[in-house]
Amino acid sequence: MMLARVADSLYWIGRYVERAEHMCRLADVLLNATLDRTESSGQVAGMVMSAITDGHHDAPLSPWDAALAITMDSENGDSVTAALARARENARQVRDQLTTETWERLNLIHLRVTGEGAARDFSDAPSQFLHDIIADLHLFKGAADATMSHGEGWGFLQLGVFIERAQLIGKLLQAGFGRNLGRPVTEHAAMTALLRMSCALEPYLRKHTADIQPTLIRQFLMFDEDFPRSLRFSTARIEEHLSSVGRNVDLGGGAGPERLAGRLKARLLYADPKALGGEESDSLVATVLEECARLHAGIYDTFVAYSLEMRLPA
Fold first, then answer.
1. Angle between helices 4-33 and 188-197 (to 10 degrees)
2. Quick one: 192 exposed, middle or buried, by C-beta within 10 A (0-12, 13-18, 19+)?
3. 8 A C-beta contact, residue 10 and residue 126
């Protein structure tokens, strides 16, 4: 069985890398919204701020300042810079678990956002700066997939990725369509921006052509079985990887994380998208977020913060 500290670091590498990529995408869409002053640009800005603050932003920043903070503010724990710094530090602690290709790629990304010229590069060409980071993060994930053994360590890395992804997409759905966070987005440009933020525009258009509707967007991001950022896809991968890493561990019986993951997967697998109205969809997204939080706590209790007596033979 893998050491608890190693499992913890790999899990958080996955989470921080996924968070950094998502925040880059939000910042890029937010910057594009500053190019005009239409109602849709206001909806996009409000949606981004709701997604990163859970709807609580008493004194919102300007779109430029918000994008700068999302990307470069090292004091903000959710910023791109902070997430990549933490991912790199966790990787340093488990360097022997990573291949040279993945370690070097993560180092290069970290240097890109923390180097002396990073702030200047962002100010000169922010979209290019963000696109380069996203491309580098894709290269990191590709290197990890192609060069790391797909064993226990890989499973913890992927658990972190998909739990973080499910939570981020859930918060984005709440920000875009949740009635408790204000008026849902209705403008065509704002709905297109939401798809861009979830990296779903092209996959959505291939499935639904140019028919961009709130109901179809919500169904796609929640229930599409092939799109790798949908809630259904993410929860299925969480259950798969959790079953793999927990093969030789007592996962806690009926309330263990494996059971939680199985129930969460079933919620999305057997739900009828066409029968869900707006309130039912909001409730399901909220449930997914709550159960992901419980899953995180369960994973931590089972694999990281367990008592020594649990692992000693009787």
1. 150
2. buried
3. no
